[in-house]
Design goal:
The protein has two domains: 17-193, Electron Transport, Fmn-binding Protein, Chain A (Pnp Oxidase, Chain A), CATH 2.30.110; 198-224, no CATH class. It is 19% helix and 31% strand. It has helices at residues 17-20, 70-78, 91-97, 107-110, 177-180, 207-214, 217-223, and strands at residues 24-25, 27-32, 38-43, 46-51, 54-61, 80-84, 115-116, 125-126, 131-143, 152-164, 183-185, 191-193. A seven-stranded antiparallel β-sheet has the order 3-2-6-9-10-5-4. α6 runs antiparallel to α7 (217-223).
Length: 224
Amino acid sequence: MYYQPGVTPHGLPRDPFKSCVVPRPIGWISTINELGQHNLAPFSQFQNVTFDPPIVMFSSNQDTSGNQKDTARNAERTGEFVWNMATYDLREEVNITAEEFPAGVDEFERAKLEKLPSTLVKPMRVKRSPIQFECVYLNTLRFPGNPPMGAVDVVFGRVVAIHIDDQFIDSNGLIDILKIKPLARMGYYDYTYVDNKFQMVIPGSNKGLLAGLEGSHDKASEAS
């Protein structure tokens, strides 16, 4: 098949675009507004941008009324947010926090999730999440789109603190991803989670390149 998005019809019962870019990590983002009200919401367009220094981003489309979502607005106004890793065991809670609530509603409470204080930023962390990144807001790239939801705020933040639950670090000092079972978004109403892995190492002996693949600041510095 072939189609031009927004120009020619795809002819399928559901739009296939999001199902072509899979799986996508979930940005389960917690923020706080100027009144001290907590917010928690998942974003399926989330990714790390670089590792030295560590920077992440999440893309927040407008809500169904065409307004900027609380998460993006809170991050911009307060300068902080937290990423909480979404897992298979937390799938129901993630889904609850995806509902479109009025501003000021605490999604932690709606999903019955216990909060943990952060160390360097004000937004709370999800206690049951195995990994959390405390982030300082950097900037937003806003792309126009078709109303009401098409416009998107791409929010970038620098990771200033990382929390990893020790029970998910194996005997070799590596994160046990298969034990965590990270949740990932697919297309339509579909999700998946990580339950297998395999290794591939870039050929050659370029230590700097391998350090980049690993995402290691220390090894990259040694190789330079």
